[in-house]
């Protein structure tokens, strides 16, 4: 699952709420998606052009790069991983292509609320 949004949109509050469940692990601001994007840059056509022609083998390589970047986190088996780096929103198309079954939470906040906070 990916928790996306903009700064000051409430993602930290959502992170805390989700992390209170024993079967959920939240990963705050790790560069795993960037590692995946770097892998996509190496494909023919480069990122983002490669997304239109990416095959199953290349998708598997991008997924492996993502999960290899998480390997140091010692995530227990059987838990839901919530990747919280709000500005990964800009990689929405790549996330949807590489992780087609992933779930997303988009945190939105009214600009007036963000200014006051």
Commentary on this structure:
The chain is an alpha/beta fold and 117 residues long. Helix content is 40%, strand content 15%. It contains 5 helices and 4 strands.
How would the blueprint of this fold be written?
Layout: E1 2-5, H1 11-19, E2 24-28, H2 32-41, H3 56-70, E3 80-84, H4 92-98, E4 104-107, H5 111-116
Parallel strand pairs: 1-3, 1-4, 2-3
Helix pairs in contact: 2-3
Structural class computed from helices and strand pairing: alpha/beta
Instruction: Give the strand content.
Output: 15-25%
- N to C succession of SSEs: EHEHHEHEH
Oligomer: single chain
Query: Please, what is the average pLDDT?
Result: 90
Strand order of the largest sheet: 2-3-1-4
Could you tell me how far the N terminus lies from the C terminus, measured between alpha carbons in angstroms?
27 Å
Which regions contain 5 or more consecutive residues with pLDDT less than 50? Answer: none
Helix proportion range? 40-55%
Descriptors:
single chain; 117 residues; alpha/beta; four-stranded parallel β-sheet; globular
Quick recap:
The protein is an alpha/beta fold and 117 residues long. 40% of the residues lie in helices and 15% in strands.
